[in-house]
Amino acid sequence: MVARRLDAPTATQRAVVPVALRGRDVCARAPTGSGKTMAYLVPMLDKMCARASATASGPRGIVLTPTRELAHQTRRACAAAMRTCAPGMRAGELPVASAGTNVLRETAGSPPDVLVATPTRVAECARGGYFPPGALGDGLEMVVLDEADLLLSFGYVDDIKCVMKAVKRGTQVMMLSATMSKEIEELRDVIAHKPTTIDVDDEEDVDAEKGEAKAGEGAKPGPDIKHYSLHIPKAHDRLLYVMALLRLGLCKKKALVFVSSADAAVRLRLFLHKFGVPTCALHGELPANSRTHILQEFNRGVYDFMVAAADDANMAEPTEEADAVEEQEDKAPTRESKKKKRDRRDKEFGVVRGIDFQAVNTVINFEVPTTAAAYVHRVGRTGRAGNSGTAITLVAPSEEQSFAAIQSKLASAVGDAVAATQVMQPFDRLPKEAVDALRYRAEDAARAVGKTAVKEARVRELRQELLNSERLAAHFEDNAEDLALLKHDTSLAKHPDAKHLSHLPGYLRGGKSRRGAARVVEPDSEHARNALNYHLDVEVAEFGSKKKRKRNDKRETGPDLRVNNKFKKGNFKKKSGGRKRSR
Ligand SMILES: Nc1ncnc2c1ncn2[C@@H]1O[C@H](COP(=O)(O)OP(=O)(O)OP(=O)(O)O)[C@@H](O)[C@H]1O
Fold this sequence. Notes:
Layout: H1 11-21, E1 26-29, H2 36-50, E2 61-64, H3 68-85, E3 91-93, H4 101-109, E4 114-117, H5 119-128, E5 142-145, H6 148-153, H7 157-166, E6 172-177, H8 182-191, E7 196-199, E8 204-207, E9 212-215, E10 224-231, H9 238-247, E11 255-259, H10 262-274, E12 280-282, H11 288-300, E13 305-309, H12 316-328, H13 335-344, E14 362-365, H14 372-379, E15 388-395, H15 400-414, H16 417-422, E16 424-426, H17 432-448, H18 451-475, H19 480-485, H20 499-502, H21 506-509, H22 526-541, H23 546-556, H24 561-566, H25 569-576
Parallel strand pairs: 1-6, 1-7, 2-4, 2-5, 3-4, 5-6, 10-15, 10-16, 11-13, 11-14, 12-13, 14-15
Antiparallel strand pairs: 8-9
The structure holds adenosine-5'-triphosphate.
Residues 4, 6, 8-10, 13, 30, 32-38, 178, 354, 356, 358, 380, 384-385 line the site of adenosine-5'-triphosphate.
């Protein structure tokens, strides 16, 4: 905790750590961003430091995570903590499937003190006998299932059981999750021994002795997130509404926009670029090194806006691993059982869940998430570590029903009828006039980012990121300065974006009161005040510092010959049929 400069434990840590320190198995549900990682790392490292290892070689702690990204993040958190409290110890991950069996065998043959990996990789080592003899026996102090709900929704249950079968009976087990379900309870009953179940809810603290909820003393463990819904007239308007929210400064930076696929991420990125809103995109088809680097840069504050694809269909690792599971199934699976398994898997994307995006003030859901659990995980990327945040979900008419279902699930989680109605409020800071004023430009720009443009942009993006990735692989550890030069928010457009779109005249930004134009929002709440402050900020700064803007201008626009030719006086009138140029 000292190493991470954490002054006081969060309510989750206060509830979980003492129980775990007593050696009890723990199954804890605690809100996103409430510090679950340290809640299991502290007792694990404490146990490891308290006594010498019973075996010469073998992991002393195993952390199972649903994705490689989360494994990487957890390994780093563990290594950072170890530097202070256990300098002689080592935290490590297992290599990806594509690295091959020999590499996996070699790594597992001399495992680190704390091994962090997805269940499939650990199960493969257990099945193949790659760990040193007795490695999962007396020397192993603790097995942790981090993000237990995601582990189950990604279809890892058989691998988890396989790992637990290989582990010595009586090894301490900790399960931590943001949501609780019947499946988690069933798994808990199979793998844990007389576990203490702890539920840390939003308004209450926990009596660690009993593992029961009780009134807290001012500590607020749950995320402080304001939930808003933005009902849009038609699904096609999503791009327009997101652009309006970001461009008019109605949501506080840093903002994270969730979309449902890599295609949608690239499309939104292309579209926002046209309006002078540089964003980086995170999706499963990017090389792993690039994903890690993008995340690090976003957390460092290099980018204000990120578009993240929450779609595990495009997520290399879980799909690959799940396929491996299917192949290795003892019973020959039928086509139907395979399909069922895939369907059961949550439709969410592994890269973005459980990841500690830092200092995100706003999460925007481009579409309504598929399940209430998915909603909780997505919006949980803001309001972390005691900070406040805002979540805005765009709801198209066709999504009203699924949105209502999510709303009622969230409401029942609150448990109080009055509070339940207040969980989600309509976002009324974006006047219809403001949207209408931008509509014409947006529709024009949306047409320019059709299927072909997206396809081409994705090829360019992949090429660019593969190059980045190679450089990253070579320099990751030693040349941090070089890394800073790699940019992930540059334009992906084939032709330079037209400069006129990125400049919004004052009347479109709501600066002047004019019929049909955006009005400045009255600051009648903290959110609105923040929005207004930010709005003014945007007007002055025009998205980024002068230096940054100059750099972007140079890189993104360049001499736009196409626009110059097109808008030559004579040509323009003839082709456009006399449309007004001022648009
Ligand atoms: N005691 C503490 N005081 C302040 N910040 C903390 C404390 N413990 C952890 N944090 C910070 O809180 C953030 C969220 O922590 P963590 O990722 O462990 O949350 P989580 O509950 O696992 O979230 P999720 O369920 O979304 O994965 C991290 O940035 C972490 O550094």
